[in-house]
Amino acid sequence: MNYRLLLILLGLLSVGVHAQPNAGSTTFSVSFPSTQSKAALDGRVLLILAKTNKPEPRSQVSDAVETAQLFGLDVNDLQPGQAAVVDASAFGYPKRSLKDLAPGDYYVQAVLHKYETFKRSDGHTVKLPMDRGEGQNWRTAPGNLFSKPLKVSIIAKTKQRISVVMDQVNPAIPEPKDTKFIKHIKIQSKRLTEFWGRPMYLGANVLLPAGFDEHPESKYPLCLFHGHFPADFDGFSETPPPANMDTTDYIERFHVHGYKKIVAQEAYDFYEKWTGKDFPRMLIVEIQHANPYYDDSYAVNSQNLGPYGDAIMYELLPEIEKRFRGIGQGWARFTYGGSTGGWEALAAQVFYPDEFNGCFAACPDPIAFDAYTVFNLYKDKNAYYSEGPFRRTPRPSQRNYLGQVKVTMEETNHRELAIGTHNRSGDQFDIWEAVYSPVGEDGYPKRVWNKLTGEIDSTVAAYWRQNYDLMHILKRDWKTLGPKVAGKIHIYCGDMDNYYLNNAVYLMEDFLKTVKEPAANSEVAYGDRAEHCWNGDPTQPNYISRLRYNTMYVDKILKRIETSAPQGADLKSWRY
């Protein structure tokens, strides 16, 4: 009797599995009208499905568990009115295929992320999304086509073809305007133009010191503030926030109400410090180096991105110092930044050791690939899983300060793959690959691991090690680099960094503590239970200290100048 009951139950379960409804027979027909473009277009069709239209589905794609569903499809020479068909073969995130999508009601929206053709000087022709002033964001890139959200019903076991028309276009982004203190500069780079085979530009937002016009004889030290694409110089305001400013906003990450007013008040406080009589007069520069792969270039030379490091150092910075009376010597240049900017600050000090007198690298992207977030790029076989003879354990990609995992490595990378093939997602793991990898035979970056499976390519990893692993380079070249960077390296990181970036900092700290001839004389500090991006101030919560980059390292910069400036250096004209 029990045996017969078991068979009946197994039969019911089997029927339930086979009867599970899916959307495998549903397809989407995505097109654009001739009113938006009479010419054929190249790019990536992105189809997004969400359970709500507030915000729009395209704004709901993320690493969060609440993410919208995304499917991606490359298109070449897509004609006006021609349908790009998104079916079960289109790669998706987080569901891999349309056939895995449950029937039900959805809001659907389509975006065409437009690509341009580049004929590079290395002989390769590639199609990439040129930045158009938005900082490599497919959601808002000017000229990208999109559809209005459309409510649809996906019905089980029913053949459907749903039409989606991209009849909207993202508008151009206005250029920021100069003010008394903030100036904007843009130059065409000879080096980058030659590499990319078309005009390429570098820009910067420059914060001028108080009294700049009143002291025409003064020349100034320069601080290069590295970070993600800065549309304008943020965090500086000549007016305080209104007393009745709305404070009902809530920031989940910081568990703080009224953060917008806090940010506005900090911006005004910075203005008051900047113009105060005791504040040292200097130039603060944020560079704009968005490119066809990301919102910035990582400020180094790269086979795939071109000679951005040299273009910044030998074209952009000299022009800034010429226009705005910079001292223009290495003893009077410093660099700082967080996250991407933290890696760039340290990389600039390592690759151009004579050009900077100190770097302050906060929560830097992995500075030792032995600890490439949560795994060893050189010894591990798979980026997505730690594997034994009888089990595979997914590797985490993000966590909170309690260690609770938000998303896995595989999920993050599959989101990028759905957004764009050939490193064209404009996102984090893709840009690391684009910067650090050699060029592949097809002209696109070689994958350091299989984007679908996570299997690591040891030959590409070896190339990364020799060219961009900052700890390995310091170890390898310490005999020549050490005398140039001793006393200049400062690194700060939370010990619960959301992206596990502290793991590489631990390895770097061990090296810097023990190296001799010369001793590193460096500084490495950690924030207890601090998340990304802790930047070195243990007296303030990080939601405050992250707003004070431009003031928190000043005392250390001044001390370094006083103890290291060459004889006869100008230490007075900028201290009025």
Automatic annotation (TrEMBL):
SUPFAM superfamilies: alpha/beta-Hydrolases (SSF53474). This is Esterase. Keywords: Signal. Residues 1-19 form the signal peptide. It comes from Spirosoma foliorum. The lineage of its organism: Bacteria, Pseudomonadati, Bacteroidota, Cytophagia, Cytophagales.
